[in-house]
């Protein structure tokens, strides 16, 4: 019996040793598999992070380029916001190669609700979209033991300057029609005049913005300063004749509003890139027939525009419809300083400060206020002569805008603006793009 027991335990021990060897082999294999899974997970997670980050920077670059489409700098701006070395969104995890392509997409050009025509601005090719492609080769951490040492990651983003369903807008243009607007501006381009006046340049800018709005949802008003003597004079601003309206002093209850709530400035579906020549608004800003004379710059009572801003805001509030965004776009040299004999009681002093206050009140009520300084002086002693403390016309126009991005200057390095456009047509086009907003669209859009 004793011998049998010893034989049993010897056999059991040998079986146990064999089992431990098998278990050790299983554990070793399991650890190798677990290490492989962890290794693949680490590399896959990192590559996913790189892909998402690369796509985000591609999206930002495409949107930035689309926002500057009408300035003729879409490619350069898109590249500057890429993840490529030196770009605003440069990344530290690899060397990114970025390319920018401006494309004409027929689908976008023929939208039934809101066509974005293929157009060229500056030296840009005829296009209506910006596509950014970014690639980077990423080194793996653990997958290299499986022979995968690097992986190439690509991200593509496409954006258009305007969306197919823009936010409804309620826009009021305020134009300086003082006598100085009759002066020539030989640097102005694209007006169709051999020697355009400052008013010609301003009206061309308005037309540039109008073709980016949608009559089906966007209503537009037009105000001028100085105002007219009474409502009977308004039609003279759009009747295509050369008879000038009578101008009222600022203390004589002037009529600032020329056109109210126009929705016929463009016709057709899909929308064309031209104005409706029969629209009173179009005719007033030079979009009528070739023989139609637009509004005039009579002047004669000096410059004061705080009340025009207030009148524009009141008109926007009165005509506002649910869902609309109120917008004021004002153009002037900003040098308010009408004589006391032309001014309402108590308003002679601080005429430029009054304009800032009026614009800030509009902005506080939710209105987007865009300001365009056209030949504005930067001298606080040579402009805004009625103001104490002294401020310049440039300073006034800068602070009329509801935020710095909404301020433009025809001399952006002198009367400083964060926006680089100097041609009025480019300025108004950029405002149009910012109002409609750049949108990302599927990369497969043709």
Account of the 3D structure:
The chain is of the alpha/beta class. It has 2 domains: 2-160, no CATH class; 169-415, Rossmann fold (3-Layer(aba) Sandwich), CATH 3.40.50. Helices cover 32% and strands 17% of the residues. It contains 9 helices and 10 strands. It has helices spanning 2-67, 74-80, 106-109, 198-210, 280-284, 306-319, 351-364, 393-400, 424-436; strands at 96-103, 129-139, 150-160, 169-176, 219-228, 255-262, 325-332, 368-373, 407-409, 439-441. A 6-stranded mixed beta sheet has the order 6-5-4-7-8-9, sandwiched between helices. β7, α7 and β8 (368-373) form a beta-alpha-beta unit. The longest helix is centred in the N-terminal third of the chain and has 66 residues, at 2-67. It is elongated. The relative contact order is 0.12. The mean pLDDT is 87.
Number of domains: 2
CATH homologous superfamily descriptor of the largest domain: von Willebrand factor, type A domain
Q: Please tell me how large the radius of gyration is.
A: 32 Å
- The assigned structural class equals alpha/beta
CATH class of the largest domain: Alpha Beta
The fraction of residues in strands falls at 15-25%
Report the span from N to C terminus: 92 Å
- The CATH topology of the largest domain is given as Rossmann fold
Shape: elongated
Number of helices in the DSSP assignment: 9
Second-tier CATH architecture of the largest domain: 3-Layer(aba) Sandwich
The biggest beta sheet reads: 6 strands, mixed
SSE string, helices as H and strands as E? HHEHEEEHEEHHEHEHEHE
